[in-house]
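Handout, section B. The chain below has 148 residues.
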Amino acid sequence: MTDAPWMYGLHADTGYLLYRLGLRSGSMFNSELERHGLRLRHYALLRYLATVEGALQRELSTRLGYDPSAIVSLVDDLQRLGLVERRSDPKDRRNRIVVLAPAGTKLLSESELDGSRVTDTLLAPLDPQERRTLQALLLRIAEAPDAP
C-alpha cells in the first residue's frame, strides 16, 4: 500500500483493509481459476457440492450467500462445462438437485494446488501461528449472524 498521508486513515480502517484484501485475493484466485474456465464463485459452488450428496438450488443460494438468480447462472455454466448435473430429487420429483459430476471432482483435485499457491502468496508475511490465528478469526467473523 502507498504511504501517501491521505492513506493513513484508511490503513487504520479494518473494513477497508478487509475490502482491499478481498479484492486482491479474489483477483489472484480468479487468475488461477481462469485456466480451468472458472471464476471464484464457480469454484465455491463446486467445493460446496463436494461436501454433500446433492443440493437444491435454493440451498446453494442460502449456504453460499449468493442471490438465487446468480446460482441458476452459475449452475448453468458448470453444467455446460460438464462439471455438475441436475437430477430429479428422489424425495420430490418436481425438484431438481445439483450434484458434482466426475469431471467436477477431477477439476477440484487439479485446482487445489492453484488455491494453495494463492493462499501461500497472500499469507507469505505471516508465520504458521499467525496464519492459524487469522484463519480462526476470519472464520469467526464469517460465521457471525448478520446484524438486524
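Note. The chain has a mean pLDDT of 88. Compare this with the example in section A.
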